[in-house]
## 1
Amino acid sequence: MKSVIVIPARMASTRFPGKPLVPLCGKPMIQWVYERAVASGACDDVYITSPDDDILSVASSFGAKVHQSRLDHPTGTDRIAEFAETVAAEFYVNVQGDEPLIDLGTIRSVASAFEEHGTKMVSAYSLLKEEEKPNPAAVKVVTAVDGNALYFSRFPIPFPRNQTQVLYKKHIGIYGYTREVLGIYPTWKQGELELSESLEQLRFLENGVSIRMVEGKESAVAVDTPEQAKEVEAILQQMPSQR
């Protein structure tokens, strides 16, 4: 099966404008993400897609394959869906452009889940830390006995009405999709659940698409702010083999 890792990136960011090009140990952040994606060996190809000429120019300069997307996409998945219209593959893995420390094994686990017949979409989870339960930025997921997602929420789920031992799961923001399901996604309107939680993966559940969940490992730090960029740079400085 032909497969592609797609890294969506854009200059516009409420908390950190221009963050894909912020320098980390002498390289732009998007290059670190790209090199991690390539190093995973999870798919046949790796692309960076962006509406911004600055990002595409820098990505081309370090040898990445690039795709120019429209500016008006409401979510990253809409950007991947546009990419899939141009670059044909059987499935695509969406690696976020602000994850320079993304775990290679997690990328591989998402991609390998498509070996299972009938899988249309995949994502990942890790165990939620106790202190993360009340944090709405830490998205929670509950799964069925077959490993598929039942629901994603910013609220701690399941609610602990009874004092039973439940392993709370934290969603890791990496996705895999078949070309078929990406083709349908833009035709669906944003539903009440997606709009309420501001979680685009709920659009798939609202429209009857099962999401296979695989266990992974979250990044030590994802970059949403300049302070987090400094944290990541400090970690990279302790990893000379990664430079």
Note: The first helix runs from residue 29 to 40.
## 2
Amino acid sequence: MHPFAYVAPSTVAEAVAVLDKHGDRARPLAGGTDLLVKARANVWELDAVVDIKNIPELMKLSVSNDGLSIGAGVPCYQIYDNSQIAAEYPGIVDGASIIGGIQIQSRAGVGGNLCNAAPSGDGICPLIIHSAVAKIASTGGTREVAVEDFCTGPSRTVLKAGELLVSIEVPKPAANSGAAYTRFIPRNEMDIAVAGVGVFVQLDASGKNFVSARIALASVGPVPILAKEAGNSLAGKPVNDETIATAAALAKAAASPITDMRGTIEQRKTLVEVLTGRMIKQAVERARG
């Protein structure tokens, strides 16, 4: 491993100053579950590692009437151990609870999962369906990017050299809404999704009709996919098997997978259709309480 400097700033300003100085040869350290693996494999040759765990904004987790704020360094277990988050943001809890095992979840967070930008990342689709926004800092100020636009390719994001993900901001869900995320893996020993689907739905007061929906797909494209047409097809329609089947077919059409050692194009497309139907039904159940 290439020798590097370890820096532990206490403010966002100090962190982005170091990142800006070293450019592509510096990386932030939160859980380290991705960074350490890539550094040891010489995927990254680093001059500086910036430990963000002493920066309050990046370790803050809060839920209020305004919504949910997840600091970029908050580990997964803090999310799924929070009863209010579990009640209001079940889709995010679904994702956070299956990122690695319990030991990994004590270190890794959805912020790092997002920045790693793996198409199969289990924390990303749940953020997309919940309309989350990434708050990014640099020496020039801050900017916000919708999570569905954050990943630009495998292991690539909108983050520029010197920029730092500070937090993920999630709006408060509307009344009569529910969400769910699941994935298919080939066996328990291979903890990478062959396909994954997240669904958010809002129902009317009767619980019998869809008001709106968002559907996101994992591991079936170069980036996590917001299947807009599939989600939009549910709006204003009754909650029934025909409506759900139409949306599932549109989600299948939105997938653009490849064939690899974990699965074929045909298998992945079929999985998307099946999982979308299941997750719509589960999201509806949760919306109905």
Note: The first strand starts at residue 5 and ends at 7.
## 3
Amino acid sequence: MGKTVLVIGASGDIGSAIATQLGNEGYQLILHYHQNREAVTAIEQGLAPETVLDVLKADLESTEGINTFLTSLVYPVDAIVFASGVAHYGLFQDTPEQVMDAMLSVHVKAPLKIVQNLLPSMIQQKAGKILFISSIWGEIGASYEVMYATVKGAQNSFVKSLAKEVGRSGISVNAISPGYIDTKMNVLDPEEKAQLVSEIPLNRPGTPEDIANAVSFLLQDKSSYIHGEIVRISGGWS
């Protein structure tokens, strides 16, 4: 079998597409989810039995959940893909502190702790891939999604900084910055969706498979000189 990839947020639309594609390409998988076990089961059923090494349930919104997850990791990991996402829509002035804490934990604290935990073995092996699914909002900002844009911006800064620190150790660190992807997380009425799509030069929303294709490429050796980059996949929309 191929290398082992840890997919954080494998139960989401994008995470599921990533896990399915990587599994079909010969990678072994460790799949994380929080609540939607059915989605992970569907991934497992569509792949060869030996593909999924482990399935880990963890709530990454809390320090306890993060620590429980870290103690549950028993297999060596060659690559990490952070695909989990928690959105919040509303005026920033009305954002509850509980929401702030949860989003900071899922998008910032948990990824940092997970990377910190797995880095020593990657450095020892002189190899590793770390990849974030960020967001275009982390680059350009978004009204009514201030917290989401903020935590995605933090991910982008982490990618750029960590890449400078670990590049000499043979570890690749990048992020994919999706534009509008047609998933359950993006809730728009038909009129809103049509208006948004009309602003995209390719005249269609992105799909989870578009993101999975990019993940596949960035995990391959042929992408080895792409490092510390925020790769925008938006159909030309900005």
Note: The chain has a mean pLDDT of 95.
## 4
Amino acid sequence: MKRIPLYEYDRRNREKIVEVVEAENGLMLSAFRFGEQNGRIQLPSGTKYMLIDVSSLFANEDRVTSLLPYLERIIAFVQNIDRCEACVILERQYMASAKGMLYFALGEVRSLEEKLGLTELLSNNIADLSEKDFEELCNTVRSRLFGNPEFKERLFEELRRFRVFSTMGNQRIFSAFLYGTSGIGKTETARLLHHCLAPSEQLIKLNFGNYSSVNSLGSLIGSPRGYVGSSKGELSEKLLNSRGTVILIDEFEKASKPIHNFFLQLLEDGWFTDSLGRDYDLNKYMIIFTSNLTEDKIDTELAPEFRSRLNLISHFEPLSLEEKEAYVRFKAKEILSGVPEEKRSSITTELINDIVDIDVSEVEDLRKINAELMKRISSSLYPIFYSDET
């Protein structure tokens, strides 16, 4: 039996893959659709190639073995078809299982993205940005992240250094540990970086406030097969469902020792394997750790070997009065930009001044400022949006 190559792909690229296949007169079938046609595929005229996606057969690991004959039929079809090129494709997360089950029929594992000329798809990361786009990212962070100007310039300097070493293959993950009181911009830093790189994707965010138990590593990367409880990990699933390359870890100091050790190894290697044997390559990702620790606790709470692996450790200072007032004006303008065109004539300068007239002198937490601002905006806009019309 001749072996066939297996083409793996990142599930986050699926929509683009389908788009390219259709544009090139290719045909893409799921394993179940193939089965419905009993292998008697009616190829449209001019079909260039056929891709049979067997990912759905591996989605339930408890049923994979029973579906082996079905997989063998698909492989036999691909081996013998002569009407066009046919390939078996599979989401990368299932590759370890596929290689173990189909070792007798599979040859080389190849990249489907490369085959289709989609090697630039995953370039929504800090290392592969053009210099123009990188400077635009820096300018966006400067203008939208209020306070801590020294931190921002240090961040850009460290990101430039990472871009160089990442390109040379000497560094895989950029990591920063931001600490200070709540609500002064630590989380917003990660959100802004994510928005600049992958605005249409979900931010990969984990809060370690509930990750303090000795078994918490299972919650992060999944529990072994047969273990009573969840078999899927929060980090694993969020990585599979977002093309974003920024990971936000809130309240890192509350995590258990096994979690700390996991990230210690992750920052060293740049990849990890979850409980189901799926590999996750985080090359060119950014991990932003945030913490409410005070300066005097950093040395005692963070192990020296962990600190040495971080690109940046920075203490966030509370915003000055002028910075908070500038933030209120900026945020109000941003929110009010969403007012429908037909209502904008009612948004007068006087109304805006009333909205932003907030006493922020005794408030440090920007979340509290946001809450007050939203309250004032809703009170001001409600009669404009829902006034009785006669």
Note: The chain has 17 helices and twelve strands.
